[in-house]
Amino acid sequence: MIHQFTAIWKFRHFLMALIKLDLRLRYRRSVFGIGWSLLNPIAMTIVFCVVFSSLLGNGDWRSYAPYLLAGMAVWAFLRDSALQGCRSLISNEAYIRQSPLPYGLYPLRTVAGQAIHFGIAMFVVLALCLILLPQRLELLKVIPYVIPGLALAFIFAWSVATITSFVNVYFQDTQHLLDVGAQIMFFLTPIMYPASTLTKQGLQWLLDINPANLYLELIRTPLIEGTPPSLQLYAVGVVVTGCFVGLALGTVAWLQKRVIFHM
């Protein structure tokens, strides 16, 4: 673990150059630039508010809109990190063949780029909460409690991207399977409806085995309800994130010397 992180830190300037390159290529000749990254969650929030606010939000669009936008932002970050991260080794094959850089750097390149868009989306969520929700003072007090959840979500996304990037080298249908799985998980995750909907149907186990729900609870719930997460929830987040970090490090240690022969 120490070797991986020290090696990545050693090449941090190269990593930042890659992230800047990705942003320039993605928004080259674009009028709105990085603002386009907010178009999809905002558009989906408007559509869902118009269609489902009375059905899933008890008719109160002022509280449903920030709830939904926060859920969409967290979900989009986790989904895109996994989907795009699974191709991070294959798409960086030229660098891998030329330089002995740490393998964790390439999934980090993808996740860090997604984190920039995620951070912008969360600023919009915070502004929307302060404008529409009545508990404004409580929201300002709980903002520091959201930061650990954001950090855990970032580490989790990096770990998942690392694992899937190695799996995708050996089985290149991984991205397509993840895409299908993400579409299914979207409706099984309390993004556009409250978690109590599943609990009332006796489906609490779906919430317990869904990592995305954990990070929604750590990030979205404090912003919407104005109350910090419990210490137990933080502990669960640390344990789950630590398990995926261990899997990612084990995957790198196991396959890093052989993966180049399968590209």
Question: In terms of topology, how is this protein built?
Answer:
Blueprint: H1 2-10, H2 12-26, H3 39-56, H4 61-85, H5 88-91, H6 93-98, H7 105-132, H8 136-170, H9 174-188, H10 196-200, H11 204-208, H12 211-225, H13 231-255
Helix pairs in contact: 2-7, 3-4, 4-7, 4-8, 4-9, 4-12, 7-8, 8-12, 8-13, 12-13
Total number of helical segments? 13
Residue share in helices? Answer: over 70%
Helix/strand order: HHHHHHHHHHHHH
What amount of the residues lies in strands?
A: under 5%
Rg estimate, integer Å: 19 Å
* Residue windows where pLDDT falls under 50 for at least 5 positions: none
Structural class: mainly alpha
What is the number of strand segments? 0
What's the shape?
globular
Distance between the first and last residues' Cα: 25 Å
Could you characterize what this model shows?
The chain is mainly α. It has one domain. The protein is 78% helix and 0% strand. Helix 4 packs antiparallel against helix 9 (174-188) and helix 8 (136-170) runs parallel beside helix 13 (231-255). The longest helix is centred in the middle third of the chain and has 35 residues, at 136-170.
Keywords:
263 residues, mainly alpha, 78% helix
Q: Quick summary of this structure?
A:
The chain has 263 residues and is mainly α.
